[in-house]
Amino acid sequence: MTEAPLRVLIVDDEAPARRRLHQLLDDCADAFPLAIVGEAANGREALELLHVVAADLVLTDIHMPDMDGLELARHVLKLPHPPVVIFTTAYQEHALDAFEVNAIDYLVKPVRVPRLLAALQKVPKLKPVPAAKLDLLPAGARRFLSITERARVMLVPVDDIAYLKAELKYVTIRTVQREYLLEESLTHLEEEFGPRFVRVHRNCLVARDFIKGFERRVSDDGDAHWEVLLRDIAESLPVSRRQQFIVREIGRIATD
Amino acid sequence: MVLVVTIATGLVTDSLLRRVVPLPEGSLSRYLLFGLIVAGTLLFYLQLRAKALSPALIEARLQALQARIRPHFLFNTINAVLSLVRAEPKRAEHALEDLADLFRVLMSDNRDLVPLADEVLLCRQYLALESLRLGDRLRLEWHLNSMPGDALVPPLVLQPLLENAVYHGIEPSSEPGVVSINIFAKDGQVHAILRNPYRVDGGRHHAGNKMAFANVRERLALHFDAEGSLQARVKDASYEVHIRMPYRPAGDRA
Q: Are residues A22 and A111 located together in one domain of the fold?
């Protein structure tokens, strides 16, 4: 059985580090058939590139501006044919213990040829690291949420999100422009993004930055409740009785 | 000294108060005991302070404050140099020479003051290595026309702060950013003003800042007492660190 060469994408914000990895992969090419399909300077660029060129393996640095390697690994899973991700890092921090424990492969820079070769040889048998496992790594909150649309991974900047609302199987993401459907749990999102969002209802998290104020509404049956008014969006969301305390907590500041 | 006075006054007022407010069973032995405690505490404190300021302890403290470079800088730099070896061996040689000079100072015993010109040269070498890794993202502006190169300063007084500037101001962004270094003498003082872009999102790793600041501050205090200071502030979207030191030219041994 002759195997097609392994298609590799290199991701690192430092040009010399990309060049070094390129050299090392060239050194491996005799022993292991491979093709370098591209280079990117951060996770965002890498994801863009992966829409255009197919890759079997992404070798990515962990710390990068705009989108780091751990976040890239999460979004990559939404591609129709997700590549395997192997992380590279310059320094063996405590953070890497979590990689060891969860058997997630990483390479320490400077990388040596035998170590790289060993990693490459394992790739055809590997499956992409699942999101549940990536969650166990000490990553910061994502900067984007991702949605698959027409085989493309759309990135929604977390800064642009006005609210997240759970509906049956999905979470609706609302930005000023439009809505998206996301297959994640609201509780999980609340844990990840912490104080950025505030829970106004069992099924709804609102971005603090988008809260314009609160308004008292009386419904037909005579019951009164609070509604959150949003900045730049002509919509309001009900505040549950249980979460009423947030009206006092944020309300004054927002209406000032 | 201020502390001694404060404590002493505090204790005296306390004992006076006790005299004015009649104590329930104001026996003589009670006053004696109280006096003894006051005297004992004062003596102990004075002794402690004398010890704290002894030259041997200052030396030891300075040694303990040895500046530490981030390991990730070392490994990333070595990796960058490795990338040059095949295609640009001359540049690789130069980078290794800079790295050797930098680590010679980092690993040496840095208790004695050095001429400011030496510290600035070291900063240039350090920043050349960072530029190697970061390319166009790191832009440097030097304003050294009125720099007194002969001023004696603590070694590594600027390098750790520039390391912070790069780590917090340049690395978190894909866009180029400027690190500016402005050093001048004025009214018998040496001023060094370092600026880097302030990244609001840089909060992801801001703890390192405080360590470097505390370290440089303490060394300034040990060498110059109240005449040395470090202040940091955010101004017009940049982060600014301002160091003041007395201008003591080399060869002007007091």
A: yes
CA dihedral B74, B75, B79, B82 (to 10 degrees): 60
Would A30 be classed as within a structural domain?
yes
Tally of CB atoms within 10 A around B24: 6
pLDDT digits (tens, 9 = 90+) for B106-164: 988 878 899 999 999 999 999 999 999 999 999 999 999 999 999 999 999 999 999 99
Q: Which residues of B touch A63 (CB under 8 A)?
A: 72, 171
B residues 167-196 lying closer than 8 A (beta carbon) to A:
171-174
Residue A241 φ/ψ, nearest 5 degrees: -55, -40
User: From the CA of B194, how many Å to the nearest CA of chain A?
Assistant: 23
Residues A99, A187, single domain; the answer is: no
- What's the CA gap between A162 and A233, in Å, rounded? 8
* B174/A110 Cβ within 8 A: no
From the list A17, A63, A65, the residue facing B83 with the nearest CB is: A17
The tokens of B134 are what?
């970061």
Decide if A18 contacts A12 (C-beta within 8 A): yes
CA distance A162 to A230: 8
**Closest alpha carbon within chain B to A63:** B172
Nearest to A197 by CA among A161, A230, A242: A161
Number of domains in chain A: 2
Q: Domain range holding A193?
A: 160-255
Tell whether the torsion through CA atoms of B190, B196, B199 and B202 is positive or negative. negative
pLDDT in tens, B203-238: 445 555 678 888 899 999 999 999 999 999 998 889
Q: Give yes or no: residues A101 and A172 share one domain.
A: no
Residue A153 belongs to some domain of the structure: no
Q: What is the CATH number of the domain that holds A191?
A: 2.40.50.1020
> Are the beta carbons of B83 and A16 separated by less than 8 Å?
yes
Residue A91: closest C-alpha in chain B = B72
- Cα–Cα–Cα angle for B94, B97, B98, nearest 5°? 90
CATH at A41: 3.40.50.2300
Shortest CA distance from B88: residue in chain A:
A16
Residues 6+ apart with CB under 8 A from A69: A11, A43, A60, A61, A62, A63, A85, A87, A88
